[in-house]
Amino acid sequence: MNRNVFKRISQLRVKEAQALLDNKHWPGAYYLIGYSVECAFKACISKQVKKYDFPDKKLANEAFTHDLEKLVKLSGLLTIFDADKRSNLDLELNWAVVKDWNESTRYEITITEAQARDMFLACTGRNGILPWIKRRW
After folding, report:
1. Distance, CA of 108 to CA of 28 (rounded, Å)
2. Per residue in 3-55, pLDDT tens?
3. How far apart are CA 29 and CA 16, in angstroms?
4. Among the four 1, 40, 64, 123, which has the fewest Cβ within 10 Å?
């Protein structure tokens, strides 16, 4: 996959998560909005590989993860992300909600409405993680 595909998938997963929220499917909404963040970070990682360049094997192997904290590091954005979190408490609080998401939530059936809505807002809100990433992808 390439950067544009990751961007499109990220945007699509936001719409799908919103539809699930609207229909009270909390676990699915929670999972998909987290997956949207994963794809957004992977778009940033893909940006590091230029057309016709042979990708760095270590970077490529490490990018096959669902760990958001690892992905922010691999994206090359960690330094600016940390600085922005220090100067923007809302971004810091939103990251505290989002960072612990993982792919195993796709098997979770006990996600509450509050958890799903908090996650969605932390990802998509004005100082959310996705708007922050999109300014850099």
Report:
1. 9
2. 999 999 999 999 999 999 999 999 999 999 999 999 999 999 999 887 766 66
3. 7
4. 64
